[in-house]
């Protein structure tokens, strides 16, 4: 199968590479998604640059949900994000009842969300 041009692949040759939040985060970071984002009242902020993005300024190119085996508080979701000015990074949140309501509200306002399979992040 031919890979489309302008595609960044996250090759999880070992499926275990994408089984934990830490391993998945390491994998996407190694593929250039190195900025860390947080949600503040004004929008999505890059921790590294301080720049703030509105929901229309971002594309969630993929997301991964991780469920704790024995403790629901271990559940998390990792969003892989590209911005309108080509910043690439991640946003992590708890999942379920422990989710940050500010992140949840912001993500609901994002219209450009893509879910890829666990072996690729395309843009």
Please give a handful of descriptors for the protein shown.
123 residues; alpha+beta; PH-domain like; 6-stranded mixed beta sheet; two-stranded antiparallel sheet; 2 helices; 34% strand; disordered N terminus; disordered C terminus
Low-confidence runs (pLDDT<50, min 5 residues)? 1-15, 119-123
Number of strands: 8
Main sheet record: 6 strands, mixed
Encode the helix/strand succession as letters.
EHEEEEEEHE
CATH class of the domain at 33-117: Mainly Beta
What form results from the Cα inertia axes?
globular
Molecular structure report:
- With 123 residues, this protein is of the alpha+beta class.
- The protein has a domain at 33-117: PH-domain like, CATH 2.30.29.
- It is built from two helices and eight strands; from the N terminus they run βαββββββαβ.
- It has helices at 21-30, 101-109, and strands spanning 7-9, 35-40, 43-46, 52-53, 58-66, 76-83, 88-94, 120-122.
- The strands form two sheets. A six-stranded mixed beta sheet has the order 4-3-2-7-6-5.
- β2 (35-40) and β3 form a beta hairpin.
Offer a quick outline of the entry.
The chain has 123 residues and is an alpha+beta fold. The chain contains 2 helices and 8 strands.
